[in-house]
Amino acid sequence: MAEQATISPLKNFFAGGFGGVCLVLAGHPLDTIKVRLQTQPLALPGQVPEYAGTFDCLKKTVTHEGVKGLYKGMAAPVLGVTPMFAVCFFGYGLGKKLQQRHPNDSLTYGQIFKAGMLSGIFTSAIMAPGERVKCLLQIQAGGNKKRFAGPLDCIRQLYKEGGLRSIYKGTALTLMRDVPASGMYFMSYEGLKNLLTPEGSSASDLSVLRVLFAGGMAGIFNWAVAIPPDVLKSRFQTAPEGKYPGGFRDVLREVLREDGLFSLYKGFNAVMLRAFPANAQEEE
């Protein structure tokens, strides 16, 4: 059984907002590399891929676009991830309350997982359009021929092309990624805190370093679950309109045809390098 602390939803809301800002600042450069690796086209016979891997992508991005190239599209998650994380913690708190008969009841890890899944449902309405804009901006190479001048211009053009449906393209895949991954995150976070708590002590008394370690490792477990649907989501959200008429099933068939199951883990190194520092933050 996991020990639970009674925390107000309002406190969860503001704590989540601050955590969202920290995550963006810590992880966006590697997120840009991840998205570029996930969306690069399959090399033609006799040719080499545009990026050979994580460090090759990093080198080429900095060489051709400068360090600022790693921060393309960051305005979208700064504006979107902050309320997204706030709503995430609010949804998690609500998910716990819905399963408790009394405020101080402990929850099993399975119940924590379900509360985390609810938080993933809550965040998708904010996360999906923010991810769509972010990914489209991240894959823009340097030079003068840019399709989008920035996040607002991207939203304007997407709305002009297909209305809100275009802006929310990829919502189903965002749900497929975030619902189980959020459940895994919160379950592993609480489990690791309990594992690190000495016998007779409370998890609320853990040192900052131990809480940071639990958060960082929970981020790794989160992305171990999230990366296959994330690959499909990135590919789908950055594709030209009409490329995948059958939705995510068409994307899945294309990705598996390219390099089998391995294709579902494109950007794995960048994701894992990003996961620990981006999630190693003290949470409530």
UniProtKB/TrEMBL annotation:
UniProt KW keywords: Membrane, Mitochondrion, Repeat, Transmembrane, Transmembrane helix, Transport
Q: Name one GO molecular function term.
A: O-acyl-L-carnitine transmembrane transporter activity
What is the protein named?
Solute carrier family 25 member 20
Example GO biological process: carnitine transmembrane transport
Membrane topology of the entry: Multi-pass membrane protein
User: What lineage is this protein's organism placed in?
Assistant: Eukaryota, Metazoa, Chordata, Craniata, Vertebrata
Q: Which family does it belong to?
A: Belongs to the mitochondrial carrier (TC 2.A.29) family.
| Pfam family membership, one | Mito_carr
The UniProt entry's GO CC annotations, sorted and at most eight, read: mitochondrial membrane
What ranges cover the Solcar repeats?
A: 7-98, 107-195, 206-284
Compartmental location: Mitochondrion membrane
Domain of life the protein comes from: Eukaryota
Residue ranges annotated as transmembrane are 12-30, 74-95, 107-128
